[in-house]
Design goal:
The complex is a heterotrimer. Helices cover 75% and strands 3% of the residues of chain A. By secondary structure, chain A is mainly α. In chain A, the strands form two sheets. Chain A has a three-stranded antiparallel beta sheet, with no helix packed on it. Chain A has a two-stranded antiparallel sheet with strand order 1-2. In chain A, a hairpin with a 4-residue loop joins strand 4 and strand 5 (593-595). The chains are: A mainly alpha, B alpha/beta, C mainly alpha. Chains in contact: A-B, A-C, B-C. At the A-C interface, helix 20, helix 21, helix 24 and strand 3 of A face strand 1, helix 3, helix 4, helix 5 and helix 9 of C.
């Protein structure tokens, strides 16, 4: 209980402190110390409640309710302010709807409902707390070095920018990052839906402010796209709470789920609305564009909010709703179809991207789609897979984002084609990036094992469409990761090593992510027994995971083997070095220059296949958006109409 | 017999001249003669090849190409000069840009004269080259042991 | 199925598969030669080739391709070991993909334009056949009730009775997996093509020998997958499985000799259409029954 309070309140205090600090030196100290403190606290928290079943804490406070309401009003106010300033009418309308809804809810409905058990802990929230506490604070440390380079770049190359765009906003940046951590802890540890909703809205607005960080037109536009889509989700969440109070007279999530299990037809609409909120936050089609736009934000933001934690709040909510999906067919089908389609189509679109951050964004959306679909299937195996996907994706993806961010600052590009020769220019970084990529899609790493469990659960629950979507989607996954991996592995001559100027804080957190990803892969069997199975047992009363433990061990050994090859096997080759074959006379083998038929010099260039004529955004995106929109609209209407008729 | 001579993979380069020998070399590699009986494969990639079949004379323009292909071949390797032009420059020997036979560019192991060189002569030359390949292979093994 | 069985299976596969695969490769070349009206090389020719390659000098462009190919070989051995010791079919399929990935990385590492192009095409090839492999495994799972290959010996009827469409689809992508014409886009056995030798352009000596051995092992593994469909009950059905696998292999050689190579667009479209139709129909039927 004390630890929970620490996890929620400590980042808040640090956020306030960071807002006031101006100097780099003192900020470094504060961020380092508090990041370590949060990480240690989350580990202690995990150890204390390891393997425990659902455990609630009686905690309720009228003051906290009022604070939550006040925060809600403040958030609407912030959005309203920005909406007026940048003349975005849609954002203004949504902010007003939310403001009014919030106030009506607080003073008209919520007062009559008392939630005894305000906080809780179970294995899923432990997993999430560990991700937030360790990966999240690791990314904050990374941001220290990254933001120095970022600001330097702005100062040096910001001639065309206005004073407002060049301003050093780092105090706000770090304050928002820590505020965000606190809000995430609130989401995963609150049983009181009002508090959960408050955390939910804080993450939305943090993301909004961080996307708009540079105040360029593109950043402002993308930030508004994010806030509009997520406020739709927020309003759906709010509406679901109205339903919950009216039908179930409760705002406790646990009680809501229990009520829903007894009266599935009554909760069809609120479950649909909550699922809708989850889909928007998890950037599922047709809402995936906000996550793509969010890539203009500084890379630590993308790593923290837009891959490892905030979007995970969306799927976290869906996983928590899984028991209800098992009894409510309509919302379950909505989540399954939208998730499955998103997985396949976004994997397709990732093939056509050359921008590394966009590839990461598409792959993030795709994997969230897979987790979403698993939550909708709601069998023990599917939930087992979903939780593991959350863990592996958080670790591997934040590693990749951090690597891409550092590479961008040192090679001046985030284009995959420019990462040619990275293996020589930034030897350690390239290897870590390769490790991250391998963790994302290939046996024997955990991600694939989880995908495998997904496949089994889809087949067992007779989700034929999902099996096909998964089969084609994962084939596309191989293509876009494989060619990126290949680009990284190129070796020629000995170009200048540009890695030496990477900040130590960046190395520290990149190293941390790599270790987490690797340990998670190698210790997969242990993780399954310690974290995931207690949760499944608590929810379904039986264990999931149809994959024999022997297979898990085989894959964990092979994962270690791959690691050894990547990091130890590359040097000490005694073989003579030869030039590449250029079908004629080569002039410079390292640069692939050969003598052409006019005795001049030509450079042989090759580019990866991006298959834009088949998987281009222009071809895939529109049908996917239309299809998913239809599914969502039909499901929400049907959930309101069909159960009463039946 | 060692394995080197049981699996001679060839690469073929037409340096210049009238192309008659080039056509004969390709004819010898055709299914009609079925050189795959002896494990011979036409690779088209110097890094995979053991025997370098050159036709035509070396001139200012292609000498560097011939040298580069030879350099890119992996030891042990042998060179067969096919046709009189490749051996000495042939009737083109006093052309303004012709340097001479292939041996002006790279060490040649077997000379197969003829204008144009006949498939039988090519096959005979390759068989002789196999013996040299075998010796070189042994020498390489010895030097590896010694090192 | 325990860990020890897999390990023993892997070692056994690592020893036996190269022998069987080498003989098959030799036979392949003889049969191809006969189809073209030639005599062809001795049956041990692939063995001679590999021995020669091992004896060649040690030369490399990137310095790491040899290590990557060794890794690919180890993964191939594991994939085979898992399958032939009666382990998990899906695991075997995933790990052979891993071997393919290391092969692709070995090609990319040289930065040769030809090898890069070949490797890029190889990723398209993997993308083309992967859905059908997954669907084939799913159909097997639905028919046999488990992914464990050893379970076929306890069946009352062979899996093929329920999976004819999936088997046809699998035969189609088998051509891609064995890198046979018309789908030998990434690297070809024949000289004088636009890619030089594609993925293997920059590999020589021992590294190239590893590629050859990996192809032998892959052939044995994929033919094992083919035969698996026809095995049930008693050990006598093993003979049927082997006969069918060899027939499928002969069929692939026949295709190899009779079709010209296609572009990647045609390969991707046809392979995905086949996967969607064959795999989809089979899964629908199995789910409804």
């Amino acid at each position: 209980m004390l630890l929970i309070a620490f996890l929620i309140l400590f980042p808040l205090i640090i956020a306030a402190l960071l807002l006031l600090l101006r100097g780099d030196g003192i900020r470094n100290v504060v961020v380092w110390v508090s990041a370590v403190a949060i990480a240690v606290a989350s580990i202690m928290f995990a150890v204390q409640y390891l393997g425990s079943p659902w455990k609630g804490f009686e905690f309720s406070s009228v003051a906290a309710d009022y604070i939550a309401c006040a925060i809600g009003v403040a958030i609407s106010g912030v959005v309203l302010g920005f909406g007026v300033k940048y003349k975005n009418s849609l954002a203004i309308v949504l902010a007003i709807i939310q403001l009014v809804g919030d106030l009506i809810f607080e003073f008209g409905f919520a007062h009559n409902v008392h939630v005894e058990v305000g906080l809780y802990v179970d294995s899923l929230s432990i997993v999430m707390a560990l991700i937030i506490g360790i990966i999240g604070s690791g990314i904050c440390v990374y941001a220290l070095g990254y933001m120095i380079d970022f600001q330097k770049h702005l100062d040096e190359h910001g001639e065309g920018m206005t004073e407002l765009q060049r301003k050093d906003r780092r105090p706000t940046f770090f304050a928002l990052m820590f505020l965000f951590l606190s809000a995430m802890f609130v989401i995963v540890l609150s049983n009181n839906m009002t508090w959960m909703f408050t955390g939910w809205e804080i993450t939305t607005v943090c993301s909004f402010l961080l996307i708009a960080y540079t105040r360029t037109d593109e950043a402002i536009n993308n930030a508004f796209r994010q806030i509009i889509m997520n406020m739709l989700g927020g309003i759906a969440f709010l509406a679901a709470m109205f339903f919950s109070v009216i039908y179930a007279q409760t705002l406790s999530f646990q009680d809501f789920v229990l009520f829903g299990l007894n009266f599935p037809w009554l909760v069809a609409v609120p479950v649909c609305l909550l699922a809708f909120a989850g889909l928007t936050k998890a950037a599922q089609m047709p809402f995936h564009t906000w996550l793509l736009g969010a890539m203009v934000a500084p890379t630590p933001t993308s790593a923290l909010l837009h891959s490892s934690t905030m979007v995970k709040a969306g799927v976290f909510l869906l996983i928590k709703l899984a028991p209800l999906f098992a009894v409510c067919v309509i919302p379950a089908q909505m989540v399954i179809l939208v998730g499955g389609l998103t997985f396949m189509l976004c994997s397709f679109m990732a093939i056509s991207q050359t921008n590394a951050k966009r590839v990461l964004a598409y792959s993030t959306i795709a994997n969230l789609g897979l987790i979403t679909a698993c939550a909708g299937v709601a069998t023990p195996e599917a939930i087992w897979a979903a939780v593991l996907l959350v863990v592996f994706h958080a670790a591997a993806k934040s590693l990749l984002f951090l690597c891409v961010g550092t590479a961008e600052h040192h090679i001046g590009s985030r284009d995959i084609e420019d990462m040619d020769l990275l293996f020589e220019r930034m030897p350690w970084l390239a290897r870590l990036m390769m490790l991250g990529i391998m963790c994302m899609f290939i046996a024997p790493f955990g991600m694939l094992i989880a995908k495998w469990a997904t496949l089994v659960s889809f087949v067992d629950s007779r989700q034929m469409a999902l099996v096909l979507l998964l089969a084609f989607g994962s084939a596309a996954t191989f293509m876009f990761w494989g060619k990126w991996l290949g680009k990284l592995s190129g070796i020629a001559g000995s170009p200048e090593n540009v890695e030496l100027t990477v900040h130590p804080s960046e190395w520290a957190s990149i190293g941390l992510m790599a270790i987490i990803a690797l340990v998670a892969c190698i210790a997969l069997p242990l993780m399954s027994t310690l974290f995931v199975e207690p949760y499944i047992a608590g929810i379904f009363g039986q264990l999931g995971g149809d994959i024999a433990i022997d297979n898990l061990w085989i894959s964990s050994i092979l994962a270690a083997f791959v690691f050894v090859i990547l990091f130890a096997g590359n040097h000490g080759s005694k073989a003579k070095r030869a030039d590449v074959y250029l079908a004629g006379v080569s002039v410079d083998s390292d640069d692939r220059i050969y003598r052409n038929s006019l005795s001049g010099e030509s450079k042989a260039t090759s580019r990866n296949l991006y298959l834009e004529s088949i998987f281009g955004e222009g071809i895939v995106r529109r049908p996917g958006e239309v299809l998913c929109t239809i599914i969502i609209v039909v499901a929400i209407i049907a959930s309101g109409v069909v159960p009463p008729v039946l | 017999m060692g394995y080197a001579s049981k699996s001679p993979w060839v690469i073929h380069y037409d340096a210049s001249s009238c192309n008659g020998c080039d056509i004969e070399v390709l004819a010898a590699l055709c299914p009609g003669f079925d050189v795959e009986r002896f494990g011979i494969i036409n690779t088209g990639n110097p890094k995979h090849a053991d025997i370098f079949l050159v036709t035509g004379s070396v001139n200012e323009r292609n000498i560097s190409v011939v040298k580069q292909i030879y350099d890119q071949m992996v030891e042990p390797k042998v060179v067969v000069a096919c046709g009189i032009c490749a051996c000495t420059g042939g009737i083109f020997h006093d052309c303004y840009n012709v340097i001479g036979g292939v041996d002006k560019a790279i060490p040649v192991d077997v000379y197969a004269p003829g204008c144009a060189v006949r498939p039988e002569a090519i096959i005979d030359a390759v068989v002789q080259a196999l013996g040299i390949l075998e010796e070189k292979s042994k020498a390489l093994k010895e030097s590896k042991k010694g090192a | 199925m325990s860990f020890i069985t897999t390990l023993i299976g892997t070692i056994a596969f690592a020893i036996l598969a190269p022998i069987v695969g080498c003989l098959l490769a030799g036979l392949d070349r003889i049969i191809s030669a006969r189809m073209q009206g030639r005599v062809g090389p001795p049956i041990l020719q692939p063995y001679y080739d590999v021995r020669k390659l091992i004896a060649k000098d040690n030369v490399t462009v990137s310095g790491v391709d040899g290590v990557y190919m060794s890794a690919a070989l180890v993964f191939t051995a594991f994939a085979g070991g898992i399958f032939f010791s009666g382990g998990n079919l899906l695991m075997s399929a995933f790990i052979i993909t891993m071997a393919g990935l290391f092969f692709i990385m070995a090609a990319y590492s040289s930065r040769s334009p030809y090898a890069e192009l070949g490797a890029g095409r190889e990723t398209v090839q993997v993308m083309s056949y992967e859905p059908m492999v997954l669907l084939m495994a799913v159909c097997f799972y639905m028919a046999a009730g488990t992914f464990n290959v050893s379970s076929v010996f306890g069946l009352s009827a062979p899996v093929i009775l329920y999976t004819i469409p999936a088997f046809i689809g699998f035969l189609f992508i088998l051509t891609i997996k064995l890198r046979k014409s018309p789908f030998d886009l990434s690297t070809s056995h024949h000289a004088h093509q636009e890619l030089v030798r594609g993925t293997t352009t920059e590999m020589s000596g021992k590294t190239l020998a590893k590629v050859e051995v990996m192809h032998w092992c892959e052939t044995v593994l994929f033919l094992g997958w083919t035969g698996m469909f026809f095995i049930w009950g008693g050990p006598l059905s093993l003979i049927l499985g082997i006969v069918v696998a060899l027939a499928a292999w002969f069929f692939e050689i026949w295709i190899d000799n009779n079709f010209a190579r296609v572009k990647w667009q045609a390969m991707l479209r046809s392979a995905w259409t086949v996967a969607l139709v064959c795999g989809g129909i089979n899964i629908i039927v199995l789910m409804l029954v």
